[in-house]
Design brief:
heterodimer, A: about 450 residues, six-stranded mixed sheet, 10 helices, B: mainly alpha, about 75% helix
Chain lengths: ~450, ~260
């Protein structure tokens, strides 16, 4: 033990109290000399009239050889942070330090000229990225092979498809052999095969002890690939450290936002539906018709009003009201029913619909052998769903109380929204609990 | 500023390949290809030659052969005016580079000036062709000043190009203004008419920097006798150095706003 402290790897990137304020000139897209002269002050026209803080007091250090993820919503300052590290813009205050050669995968093929051939563009792009002519010569075949453009390299770049363009840009940038690689959401450029090649290349970089700064919306990529991560929110650092923890905190926050949004849509839907209205076309005497109508009508609220439904809430397993659930979690629907006069012919019913309007599930107390006997004053109803085995998506719910013959007292049609989240992107509607099992000559590798 | 200026020689390779790309891209996809760089000045020459030797023939006394006289001034003017026109828009059209790549922005106007200088050089064989055709032999001793004139024009143009390109980012209408200004400037400069025939306007000629470049070219290539305009030329050289530093200073001051304003 020398100093008794933990030995930290030297940092490749250090941001210290970095703030970036973007300026908006004159509030217009751009100013003209004419307007500057008319307003009588050229100097004032060159001064920003509005400012917008893109980053506020952000500090972090990326140790050499590590892979560092940046997550956050759109507009949270991720790309600004990357541009500052790349040196494209300068911080308004604070310092940015980078050690080693940088290559930025920000805008692929940014310097390509459409009229000249891929070959010439590779050379010019390489020189722009800091390579010498000889270095490019040496790597040329590798670059072309990686981009899978052997047959097209002498055609003008304007004849390339956008995928070819991006692949060539990516290939040049990655063959710069940087010490620090900055990646901004570029894995979406190619087909499946190319994306895998890119990830393999990143893996190779990692093994060779290069530093990678990764900005992405692919949270699973951050979790699997990064050694550390930060979460930016509104230009400020919200969390830093273990990627799993950071991503977890970020997801929780996204869900909280979603919850807020769903709660407000719900409230709006209810407000629009307003009081119970008599709908003569709905509320026929036989139940079959009622069911048919249930699938046709849009959202709203109707019925005779003899019994009123209120305070509809979704509860999680902690009995807290929420609109966001995870696949397989328990969910409780709770509501109150208030009868103006005592009634003895009543049925409580619910229906769950997915975003396409498909009825996922529907039931009522009557068909489940709870025959209504007496409803007087205020009653509380709870429906416990032990396990919400649905795939990810937004679902809407009907809640109703009606007579056995189908005539509604109070019908809340698609007024309640909840969202089911899942880490697995499976498809369909229903997600049965399941597990894969294998035996014999079959092997799998971990997906990045 | 000095730090950035010191970095400039490091971008030699980049500037070289961008100039080459500019030239290639311009002539690719056109049938006559590289010949356009000859055809364009030739067309201009043909038009002016027709006007001044047929329509306004009496005004060209003492400047015969007129085609040669005019070409000596027209060729450098074409370099100057196209370089300025191009550099005014070069930061805006190259916005992708400035916003997304770590890229020394001053390279763009410099490339515009240099690419047009190459065009100027490509036009020189035509000029030599004319000299041979008219059996006009310029003073060989004076010709050593030719590279000096070119160098001064290069410095002067680059200074203006830096200034213009940086300001155009903030004042987009400068480009429209510039096109008109250049037309005016062309006719205010003794290129299609001889300087000494209009002594009344001597003051206005003298404060026009391009006058001294045009006259220098004309004295070296067209008029007999010693290179009498040397003093003016060297004064312009001094001015060009100052202009270059002013242009670079303004460019450097506005540099950080480019990525946000283009």
């Amino acid at each position: 033990m020398t100093n008794g402290g933990a030995h930290a790897a030297p940092a490749a990137i250090v941001l210290a109290h970095v703030s970036k304020i973007y300026r908006r000139y004159s509030g217009r897209q751009f100013s003209t000399l004419k307007s500057a002269l008319l307003s009588g002050n050229i100097v004032r026209n060159l001064r920003p009239s509005e400012t917008f803080p893109a980053l506020t007091d952000v500090s972090f250090a990326v140790p050499k050889g590590s892979t560092f993820g940046v997550v956050g919503r759109n507009g949270s300052g991720k790309s600004t942070a990357l541009k500052l590290v790349a040196g494209i813009t300068k911080p308004t205050s604070g310092t940015v330090e980078v050690h080693g050669r940088i290559s930025a995968l920000i805008e692929l093929g940014a310097g390509f000229h459409p009229e000249i051939s891929g070959r010439e563009n590779v050379f010019i792009n390489g020189i722009m990225l800091g390579l010498s002519k000889r270095e490019i010569q040496k790597r040329f075949d590798e670059i072309v092979e990686f981009a899978e453009l052997e047959d097209f390299i002498d055609a003008p770049v304007k004849t390339y498809s956008s995928g070819m363009y991006m692949r060539l840009g990516f290939s040049v940038a990655i063959h710069v052999d940087p010490d620090v690689l900055l990646v901004d959401e570029v894995l979406a450029v190619g087909d499946e095969g190319f994306t895998h090649k890119c990830l393999d290349k990143f893996g190779e970089f990692k093994r060779r002890g290069k530093t990678i700064l990764l900005v992405t919306h692919s949270l699973s990529l951050v979790e699997r690939f990064c050694d550390e991560a930060i979460w930016l929110d509104g230009g400020r650092k919200r969390a830093e450290g273990d990627p799993k923890r950071v991503v977890g905190a970020y997801i929780t926050d996204v869900e909280r936002q979603e919850e807020k949004f769903l709660a407000s849509t719900d409230a709006r839907a209810r407000e629009e539906a307003g009081e119970i209205t008599e709908k003569p076309e709905v509320g026929p005497l036989d139940a079959g018709d009622a069911a048919a109508n249930m699938f046709e009508a849009g959202e709203g609220r109707w019925g005779s009003g003899g019994v009123e439904i209120g305070d509809v809430r979704f509860l999680n397993d902690q009995d807290e009201a929420t609109h966001v659930f995870h696949t397989g979690e328990a969910m409780t629907l709770s509501f109150t029913a208030t009868a103006r006069r005592p009634v003895n012919d009543f049925v409580f019913g619910v229906g769950i619909f997915n975003a396409e309007g498909v009825c996922v599930y529907g039931t009522n107390t009557h068909i489940e052998d709870h025959i209504g006997d007496q409803l007087e004053g205020r009653a509380e109803v709870r429906l416990d769903l032990e396990s919400l085995d649905l795939v990810e998506g937004t679902y809407k719910m009907d809640v109703a109380v009606h007579r056995v013959d189908g005539a509604p007292y109070d019908y809340h049609r698609l007024l309640y929204t909840f969202r089911v989240k899942s880490r697995v992107k499976d498809t369909g509607v229903y997600r049965p609990r399941h597990r894969w099992q294998f035996a014999g000559g079959v092997k799998f590798k971990m997906k990045i | 500023m000095w730090h950035n200026l010191a970095q400039l020689p490091r971008y030699r390779g980049l500037i070289n390949s961008l100039v080459a790309r500019e030239l290639k891209a311009r002539y690719r996809g056109s049938i006559l290809g590289f010949f356009w760089s000859f055809v364009n000045p030739l067309m201009l020459l043909l038009i002016y030659n027709f006007v001044f030797t047929h329509l306004l023939a009496n005004r060209t006394e003492g400047i015969q052969p007129y085609a040669l006289f005019m070409f000596a001034g027209l060729l450098p003017w074409t370099w100057f005016s196209s370089a300025l026109n191009e550099s005014a828009g070069v930061l805006i059209s190259g916005g992708n580079l400035i916003k997304k790549v770590l890229f020394p922005a001053e390279v763009l106007p410099i490339v515009a000036v240099l690419a047009n200088m190459v065009h100027f050089f490509l036009g020189l064989p035509i000029l030599i062709g004319f000299l041979i055709w008219f059996q006009h032999v310029p003073d060989i001793g004076d010709l050593i000043w030719f590279p000096v004139v070119v160098a001064i024009q290069l410095l002067f143009t680059t200074g203006l190009a830096l200034l213009l390109s940086a300001l155009t980012v903030h004042f987009r209408d400068l480009r429209d203004l510039l096109a008109n200004l250049l037309t005016f400037w062309f006719f205010a400069t003794p290129i299609i008419y001889p300087y000494m025939q209009f002594q009344d306007y001597k003051f206005w000629f003298d404060i026009n920097p391009f006058t001294h470049l045009a006259i220098s070219y004309q004295e070296l290539l067209f008029f007999d006798g010693p290179f009498g305009h040397l003093r003016w030329l060297l004064a312009l050289g001094g001015l060009s150095v100052v202009l270059f530093f002013i242009g670079y200073w303004v460019f450097d001051r506005l540099r950080d706003s480019f990525a946000e304003a283009v």
